[in-house]
Write a structure and sequence with these properties.
By secondary structure, the chain is of the alpha+beta class. The protein has five domains: 6-41 and 642-676; 62-192 and 572-626, f41 fragment of flagellin, N-terminal domain (Up-down Bundle); 212-315, no CATH class; 337-425, no CATH class; 457-566, no CATH class. It contains 14 helices and 25 strands. It has helices spanning 13-40, 51-104, 112-133, 185-189, 248-262, 304-307, 370-379, 417-421, 435-438, 485-498, 539-542, 571-584, 587-640, 644-669; strands at residues 136-137, 140-141, 153-156, 159-162, 194-197, 227-233, 237-241, 275-277, 284-286, 293-298, 314-315, 350-355, 358-363, 384-388, 395-399, 401-402, 405-410, 463-466, 472-475, 507-511, 518-522, 531-534, 549-551, 556-559, 566-567. The strands form eight sheets. It has a four-stranded antiparallel β-sheet. Strands 13-12-17-25 form a four-stranded antiparallel β-sheet. The radius of gyration is 43 Å and the shape is flat. The protein starts with 12 loop residues before the first helix and ends in a 9-residue tail after the last helix.
């Protein structure tokens, strides 16, 4: 008869059953987990399987997900850049064809008929270039810069206007990486806006409405608002916080209210007015009552008092303002024309804007703000806009339409508003180098006799002016005489005086008061017509004097054409210039258009190089991203994936253990009292 082992003689049956059951259950659980791992192929199916490894895996999962998205972004970016490169390639080929066409229409092989026949070809090239410039990839306008949702090149009457902005749209391709996948059309097609930069320092006055952000401050680095310490004698010393002020009026009111609250009798009059802007419009003024003094200083390492011109001077009844302080305000949207430092005698009035044969007038008064002026210019719908320059001391006017000649003129009547603002496109300071779309003025200078080879001063004479009474004089321009419009006018008047003409009594060359151009005033009193005749060179033509308008009267006047108009320098403009030159049968114009097309082609080729560089860089970044993703996947696999061989072996071992446990349980459960009886 079998016997109970000695080791079990003292263990109750219930405890034995529980031990066996726990062993069987534990083995069953391990086998179930192994079965789950074998079926999923993963060692970690839940965080409790391995909390440390599961935490690392979750981080790796997030990194791999980001990598997957970036790689999809890479695919999209590479496709967009490829489409952009294709568009630029076709545009470059088009410009090259146009350049070859222009070259073929100059010389003995061309005539009026063939040039007219080529007009339709150039017109189709213009339309094709616009179409290529408006190429889209998915929903992106590839030459729209940052504005990829709207058509970048839009028809504007007879010209074309650029509606894009910025240098390109960026996508997430990695931390700290920045590669645009679109391009601004300006970079590819040229300057799609022409800028008239104001040359007058308007030096606006400080007013109560001047914004703090528009103040250069006494140091020129702006104004930082914070706390200042005010010492009123006799009275009190206290601290005032100016950080909540938005304009000069706020600063004045905060200072005044605090001073009146602390020392009621220190400031004259009643609130407001005890602290205000001085009459010169340069700094703050404190209207201090007799017998009081006020000192203002910075607190700690602050600079507010110094920036505002309030530190370093004791204000009293005789010294309401620091005479050396100048807060140097910049132009702001609330600056009025009455606040500007215009030339003495200037009365704000009408300014005429011309663009592409269309004109509009903006009327300004001393109460007109810069924002209102900008809005009025845009409302003309001429494809132009006004902006404050980067320095904040002047205005710029931009022509956004390719193919249009743009000018800013006076309206006449002597207000000279555009001139005072420095935005008139034809004034004394206008350099002649900008005449004729940047071609300048060609003069006869340093000529030699073709036979003797010796200098021939007679061939240096540029043009002849004949007055209404038949008096004639010749104008001989030298390089120093064509620096700007003022120097040209001075030379014409000097040569007239040299010939015995009374200047300005009988004749004077000056600027027109209204429409742009050189104006001749003729008081000779003759019955003839004032005329200009070319002698040598092209100065008369380039200055706009050959096709001027003569008006009889006292004085009689001769108004030259405006040759200083502003034209957008772009590939589209070059094609339009070629079309117009072919229509005019103008060999010189065709040659100049061909030169501009060559420049446009070089610019477009450079843009293609930029796109190619972006693609190359993108490929390198993609390779690094793929390598990083592969490394993360390897680490994750080592932590998360199951070793099938090891798991299978362990599962077989657990089966043996389970079987042994079940046998032990069966043997234990079969014991009875008889097994304990000897």
């Amino acid at each position: 008869m079998s016997r109970i082992p000695a080791s079990a003689t003292r263990i109750p049956n219930i405890l034995t059953s529980r031990i066996v059951r726990d062993q069987v259950t534990s083995t069953s659980i391990q086998m179930a987990r192994l079965q789950e791992q074998l079926s999923s192929g993963l060692r970690i199916n839940r965080a409790s399987d391995d909390p440390v490894a599961a935490s690392i895996v979750s981080v790796l999962d997030a990194r791999i997900a980001r990598s997957d998205q970036r790689l999809r972004n890479h695919d999209h970016a590479e496709a967009a850049l490829s489409a952009l490169d294709q568009s630029l390639s076709e545009s470059a080929s088009l410009l090259l064809q146009a350049k070859e066409l222009a070259s073929g229409q100059v010389g003995s092989g061309s005539d009026t008929e063939t040039r007219l026949a080529s007009v339709d070809v150039v017109e189709s090239m213009i339309r094709e270039l616009v179409t290529l410039s408006n190429t889209k990839f998915t929903d992106l306008n590839l030459l729209g810069g940052n504005r990829t949702g709207q058509t970048p090149i839009q028809g504007f009457f007879e010209g074309y206007r650029y509606a894009g902005a910025g240098d390109g749209l960026r996508t997430d391709i990695g931390a700290g990486l920045d590669i645009p996948i679109t391009l601004g059309a300006e970079r590819a097609l040229g300057a799609l806006s022409a800028r008239v930069e104001g040359d007058a320092d308007l030096d606006p006055a400080l007013t109560r409405s001047t914004l703090v952000q528009d103040l250069n401050g006494t140091t020129g680095d702006g104004v930082t608002l914070g706390q200042v310490q005010i010492a009123v004698a006799p009275g009190a010393t206290f601290t005032v916080d100016l950080s909540g002020a938005t304009d000069a009026g706020d600063i004045a009111d905060i200072l005044e209210s605090e001073i009146r609250a602390q020392v009621p009798g220190a400031l004259a009059g009643v609130f407001p007015g005890g602290v205000d802007v001085n009459a010169a419009g340069t700094a703050f003024a404190l209207n201090v009552n007799a017998g009081f003094t006020i000192d203002i200083a910075d607190v700690g390492g602050g600079s507010t008092a110094a920036d505002l011109g309030l530190a370093g001077v004791t204000f009293d009844n005789a010294t309401p303002t620091d005479p050396a302080a100048d807060l140097d305000p910049k132009l702001g949207k609330f600056t009025t024309f009455g606040d500007l430092n215009l030339a003495p005698g200037t009365i704000p009035g009408d300014i005429v804007f011309r663009n592409g044969g269309r004109a509009g007038t903006v009327t300004v008064t001393t109460a007109t703000t810069i924002a209102e002026f900008q809005s009025a210019v845009s409302a003309l719908n001429l494809g132009i806009r006004a902006e404050i320059n980067d320095a904040g001391d002047g205005l710029n006017i931009l022509n956004e339409v390719s193919g249009f000649d743009f000018a800013v003129e006076e309206s006449g009547g002597g207000t000279l508003t555009a001139t005072a603002l420095g935005i008139r496109t034809f004034q004394g300071t206008t350099p002649t180098s900008v005449f004729n779309d940047g071609r300048g003025v060609e003069i006869a200078d340093g000529a030699v006799d073709p036979i003797s080879g010796l200098p021939d001063p007679a061939r240096d004479l540029d043009f002849r002016i004949t007055l209404t009474d038949g008096t004639q004089f010749d104008v001989d321009l030298t390089p120093s005489d064509i620096v700007d419009v003022a120097s040209v006018l001075a030379k014409i008047n000097a040569d007239a005086a040299l010939a015995g003409v009374v200047v300005p009594g009988t004749f004077e060359a000056t600027l027109a008061d209204g429409t742009n151009g050189i104006l001749f005033n003729d008081n000779a009193g003759g019955g003839g017509t004032l005329t200009v005749t070319t002698l040598y060179g092209h100065a008369a033509e380039d200055l706009g004097l050959l096709d001027g308008a003569f008006t009889p009267g006292a004085p009689a006047t001769f108004a030259g054409e405006d040759r200083a108009t502003v034209r957008v320098d772009s590939a589209i403009t070059a094609l339009i210039d070629l079309r117009e030159a072919l229509l005019r049968d103008d060999s010189v114009g065709i040659t100049l258009a061909g030169d501009r097309l060559e420049t446009a082609y070089d610019r477009l080729s450079s843009a293609r190089a930029v796109v190619g560089g972006r693609s190359t860089r993108l490929q390198a970044i993609r390779q690094r991203e793929e390598d990083s993703r592969l490394l993360d996947q390897g680490i994750r696999s080592g932590l998360r994936d199951l070793d099938f061989i090891e798991a299978s072996s362990r599962f077989g071992l657990l089966q043996v253990v389970q079987q042994a446990g079940l046998q032990t349980a069966a043997a234990t459960q079969s014991l009875s009292l008889l097994d304990f009886l000897g």
